[in-house]
Amino acid sequence: MLKKISMGVLVLLVVTLVGCEANFSKGVNKDLLSGLKVDNDGLAYDEVYLTVDDERTSENMFDIGTEVYMNFTGVDYFEEVDGKVFPGAMMVVADKNGKEILEEDDMFAMYDEDGVLPEQASEMFVSLLIGDPMVEGEQYTWYSKIWDKVGDGTIEATMDIGVN
Predict the structure, then answer these.
(1) SS3 assignment, position 64
(2) Taking a C-beta distance cutoff of 8 angstroms, is the pair 65, 131 a contact?
(3) Distance (Å, whole) CA 36 – CA 81
(4) Phi, psi of 61, rounded to the nearest 5 degrees
(5) 91-114 per-position pLDDT tens digit
(6) What integer is the mean pLDDT of 146-157?
(7) Which of 47, 66, 116, 160 has a CA 20 to 30 Å removed from the CA of 9?
């Protein structure tokens, strides 16, 4: 029995090391306080967290007029073309019935032609200004996605938010 467990650990270790050498990253993480859930496939990140007024927060209820930032740090493994990477970013806010009330398709479209340096793409954010058409007392789902326009990598973040 011990031999089978050791062999299983060895196989897992080899698979992990091969995955690291191939720059492969996949995972799911959830902040239990805010409910922020992050899925990544192909792109890696160090942290995804919220800020309001340059201060980290684990809140998921916000007042009208508050600007909330979803920060992505340590983003890596974009495929490079001539030393440049081509990130995409989008976000959607949907009401409790799933109806999209806000959609930003490609917030980095201005970089499609020339790309950016990999270190510039390692720190990104999307921001949401709490306000019209959002309504006080209602709940919404905020979905954001970072993706590699050259490769297949993605980071997707989702959380439910409420308006005070």
Answers:
(1) coil
(2) yes
(3) 32
(4) -120, 130
(5) 999 999 999 999 999 999 999 999
(6) 98
(7) 47
Residue 75's nearest CA partner among 145, 17, 128, 142 is: 145
- Please, are residues 101 and 93 in contact by the beta-carbon 8 Å criterion? yes
Residue type (1 letter), 27:
G
The first and second tokens of residue 107, run together, are: 């917030």
Structure tokens given for 73:
């740090």
User: Which domains can be identified in the chain, with CATH numbers?
Assistant: 25-163 (2.70.50.60)
- Residue 90 pLDDT: 98
CB 75 within 8 A of CB 146: yes
pTM above 0.70, yes or no: yes
Tokens of 134: 């959002």
* DSSP code of residue 131: -
- The residues near 51 (Cβ < 8 Å, ≥ 6 apart) are 57, 68, 69, 71
CB 26 within 8 A of CB 16: no
**Tens digit of each residue's pLDDT (9 = 90 or more) over 56-95:** 999 999 999 999 999 999 999 999 999 999 999 999 999 9
